[in-house]
Amino acid sequence: MKEHVIKLMPGEDIIVALDQYCKKYEIKAAYIGTVVGSLEKVVFRKGYNQTMFVMDGPFEIVSCVGTLSMQGMHIHASVSDSEFKVFGGHIVQGSQVKSTAEIVLIELENHELSRTKGELTDFKELRIREISNQCQKG
């Protein structure tokens, strides 16, 4: 496993930034270890009909989990408003950082994750491939 620590700044889109980071560093499989920070706006996918639900903040990020790779990601987050009401679900592009977002990704060096049209739903579903990480001994 390999750790990646990312700090996002105001106005950055958390989904776009993570996608770009995974592609830049050619991350084949990772999961979110932790996220702390705030969002100016959060966009959730609403149900299975793929409509978007946009909420204007500010919000504190309470939790964030997900799997990522340079071939796609699946991220869920919980956020709280100024009255401590918590909202959560599948977040999508358009979720913008307010002050900062501190993210720790854990790269899984022996796996490759991808997403393809699923057999069970209309969404892209996770495909997992274990890869060999053998070193030659001399």
Walkthrough of the structure:
- There is one protein chain.
- The chain is mainly beta and 138 residues long.
- It contains 1 helix and 8 strands, in the order βαβββββββ.
- It has one helix at 14-24, and strands spanning 2-8, 30-46, 51-69, 72-80, 86-90, 96-107, 111-117, 124-130.
- The strands form 2 sheets. It has a 6-stranded antiparallel beta sheet. A two-stranded antiparallel ribbon has the order 7-8.
- It is globular, with a radius of gyration of 16 Å.
- The model has no long low-confidence stretch (mean pLDDT 91).
Reconstruct the topology from this structure.
Blueprint (H helix, E strand, L loop, with lengths): L1 E7 L5 H11 L5 E17 L4 E19 L2 E9 L5 E5 L5 E12 L3 E7 L6 E7 L8
Antiparallel strand pairs: 1-6, 2-3, 2-6, 3-4, 4-5, 7-8
Characteristic terms for this protein:
8% helix; globular; mainly beta; 6-stranded antiparallel β-sheet
Overall mean pLDDT: 91
Q: What is the percent of helical residues?
A: under 10%
Main sheet properties: 6 strands, antiparallel
Please state the CA-atom Rg, rounded to the nearest Å. Answer: 16 Å
SSE order, one letter for each helix or strand: EHEEEEEEE
Q: Overall 3D geometry? A: globular
Distance between the termini: 24 Å
Strand order of the largest sheet: 1-6-2-3-4-5
* Structural classification: mainly beta
Count the helices. How many? Answer: 1
Q: Identify low-pLDDT runs.
A: none
β-sheet strand percentage: over 45%
**Beta-strand segment tally:** 8
